Amino acid sequence: MAYRSVTKTLGILTGGGDCPGLNAAIRGVCRAAHDRYGMKIVGIANGYRGLIEEDVRVLRPEDFSGILTRGGTILGTSREKPFKASGGDNGDIVEKVGAIKETYRKLGLDCLVVLGGNGTNTTGYRLSWEGLNVIGLPKTIDNDIVGTDRTFGFSSALAIGTEAIDRLHSTAQSHNRVMVIELMGHKAGWLALYAGVAGGGDVILIPEIPYNIKIIGRHLIDRAKSGKSFSIVVVAEGALSVAEAGMEKKDRKKYRAETAVPSIAYRVAHEIESETGMETRATALGYVQRGGIPDASDRVLATSLGTAAADLLAKEKYGRMVALQGDDIGSVDLSVPEGKVKTIPRDHYMIDTAASVGTCLGE
Ligand code: F6P
């Protein structure tokens, strides 16, 4: 049944890191907007870059049909940040934002729907101050967006990370080794903490809790003395030692450059070997966590958020980010996630859950 809708034409883009569930969300927005509200849909390529370059195309029903289970994003994405000066002067900001507003006007958009993480939704909020109507959807495997209880992409990446940790158990046991696995999560350790608990990690290191290698070493040696022939260490890519946490960013960069290792997992593995003498190996799971098809939970969440965004469009409720709130789908003002990262509170129940099953958190 078609309802009368105020919004006639919407532009949709995906920004930031890709993840499973993006196409499910695109489908949710477009199916509801087109089928229920009779809206016209313009697909914008490669995030905000597509608006700057007017790289757009009208999306027809066949374009957003059959994409529910496809990984990645049919629109393409980028990390284009129009409000961030690239050359040092602000001239290019004025130029980029001007180009975005011009494309929005030329296309006759009534609203811009942005699917993305902190950066994408923050840019959307700032564009709303430039007079554009914007609605945001919270996407990221990091689950670090303020204002929503969960982001789509997180559940699928959690399943991938957990499966990888499960696999490491057999090779660690066969070789009587310590295996270090690095999961994504630059500023927040949600993925490492949840996958570490799900996969039975013996040590879990997250950015929120700077680690002391001597405490980790003692934990691993105590495990060995109690007859455990192997250990699994789960590390978020943004984890850092107590010493590094006390450094200025530039000093930390210099310190890390002196001990050139590909990433944190290799650094921690080296530190563990030096501290304990135990044979240790490292694996950085990397972009595998963002690949492949969405799991059922992400498909449901992404579709629900997408259709909720279309409902806001129809009611002309702009300047909002749709959100999972408990068991319900609601929305928050786009100012809520702006410029913020949802890190793990020290009193979050999952930290106590991990500690209660004997996991060392590096402190
Ligand atoms: O945005 C999610 C994320 O996967 C982070 O966890 C990771 O640090 C980052 O993207 C990697 O960024 P890029 O895809 O630009 O290399």
Tags for this model:
binds 6-O-phosphono-beta-D-fructofuranose; Rossmann fold; 363 residues; 7-stranded mixed beta sheet; 4-stranded parallel beta sheet; elongated; alpha/beta
Kindly report the average pLDDT value.
Answer: 96
| Hetero compounds | 6-O-phosphono-beta-D-fructofuranose
Sketch the topology as an H/E string, one letter per element: EHEHEHEHEHEHEHEHHHEHEEH
CATH architecture of the largest domain: 3-Layer(aba) Sandwich
SSE order and pairing:
Blueprint: E1 9-14, H1 22-36, E2 40-44, H2 48-52, E3 56-58, H3 91-106, E4 111-116, H4 118-128, E5 134-138, H5 154-175, E6 178-183, H6 190-198, E7 203-205, H7 213-225, E8 231-236, H8 242-245, H9 249-258, H10 264-276, E9 280-284, H11 296-314, E10 320-325, E11 328-333, H12 349-356
Parallel strand pairs: 1-2, 1-4, 4-5, 5-10, 6-8, 6-9, 7-8
Antiparallel strand pairs: 2-3, 10-11
Helix pairs in contact: 1-11, 5-6, 6-12, 7-10
The structure holds 6-O-phosphono-beta-D-fructofuranose (F6P).
